[in-house]
């Protein structure tokens, strides 16, 4: 297995991040620093990252967390803010978040030590559908909805067509479900800003096959077998489409 894939499988980082570690000289194989990305390793090789042994955990874990607002989607925050690490059990092996929700966004967040699956699910070219429920300022009009459906100009390029469904519209605020398959930074907030309906609150209801259901904020559950087989189907489709290389 290629070294960057090994590090991703071990749940250390995404494959891309693992490549950065390798090129930067942080990775040793059998005691020697390796900077070549193509290097192959097997189970019998001793791999270290920053001096710490890296092993592939044999038990994969898939937790679905309802991330509350005012929690960072990281395992550590240098600023001392609360992180998702404080909401999941420590025992059973380290899991990391798949993708990111803003500090002020709540909702479904997958956490896993399956680095390969995480890589596929967050790959920009492989659009996993995400549905967000937004409460926004003002009454959303037909022309606003059309902009979501058509795609709209954002400062980092045009958005892909999104699905949009108004749940409730009033003069002061509207409740809207938006489904996108991109994962740009603060994308849903920026789309509503572009239509002059700033977001008041944002919750992710669905990430691919994972739904929030009645999971309360701050509570996690194991992904079900059915959800896992859907996630694996996404990953194997991605593999056959030769996503990365
Ligand atoms: N879009 C946003 O604006 N924020 C999120 O957290 C996720 C999607």
Structural account:
It is a single chain. The chain is of the alpha+beta class and 245 residues long. It has 3 domains: 3-53, RNA-binding S4 domain (Structural Genomics Hypothetical 15.5 Kd Protein In mrcA-pckA Intergenic Region, Chain A); 62-125 and 209-240, Alpha-Beta Plaits; 130-207, 2-Layer Sandwich (Alpha-Beta Plaits), CATH 3.30.70.1560. It is built from 6 helices and 15 strands. The protein has helices spanning 3-9, 15-23, 115-122, 142-150, 187-194, 225-240; strands at 27-29, 32-33, 47-49, 52-53, 62-67, 96-97, 105-112, 130-137, 153-154, 157-158, 163-169, 173-180, 199-207, 210-211, 220-222. Strands 5, 6, 7, 8, 11, 12, 13, 14 and 15 form a 9-stranded mixed beta sheet that branches. Strand 6 (96-97) and strand 7 (105-112) form a beta hairpin. Helix 1 (3-9) packs across helix 2. Bound molecules: uracil. The site of uracil has 8 residues, from helix 5. Uracil (URA) is lined by residues 101-102, 105, 186-189, 202.
């Amino acid at each position: 297995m290629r070294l960057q894939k090994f590090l991703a499988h071990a749940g250390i980082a995404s494959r891309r991040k693992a490549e950065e570690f390798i090129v930067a000289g942080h990775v040793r194989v059998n005691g020697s620093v390796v900077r070549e990305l193509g290097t192959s390793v097997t189970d019998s090789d001793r791999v270290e990252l920053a001096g710490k042994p890296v092993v592939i955990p044999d038990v994969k874990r898939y937790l679905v967390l309802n991330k509350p607002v005012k929690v960072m989607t990281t395992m550590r925050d240098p600023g001392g803010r609360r992180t998702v690490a404080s909401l999941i059990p420590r025992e059973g092996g380290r899991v990391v978040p798949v993708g990111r929700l803003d500090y002020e966004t709540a909702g479904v967040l997958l956490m896993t030590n399956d680095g390969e699956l995480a890589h596929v699910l967050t790959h920009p070219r492989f659009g996993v559908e995400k549905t967000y429920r937004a409460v926004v300022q003002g009454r959303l009009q037909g022309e606003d909805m059309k902009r979501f459906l058509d795609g709209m100009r954002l400062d980092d390029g045009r958005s892909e067509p999104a699905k949009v469904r108004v749940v409730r519209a009033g003069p002061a605020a509207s409740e809207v479900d938006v489904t996108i398959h991109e994962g740009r930074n603060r994308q849903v907030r920026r789309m509503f800003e572009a239509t002059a309906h700033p977001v008041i609150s944002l919750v992710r209801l669905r990430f691919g096959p994972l739904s929030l259901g009645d999971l309360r904020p701050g509570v996690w559950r194991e992904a079900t077998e059915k959800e896992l087989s859907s996630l694996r189907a996404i990953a194997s489709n991605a593999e056959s489409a030769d996503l990365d290389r």
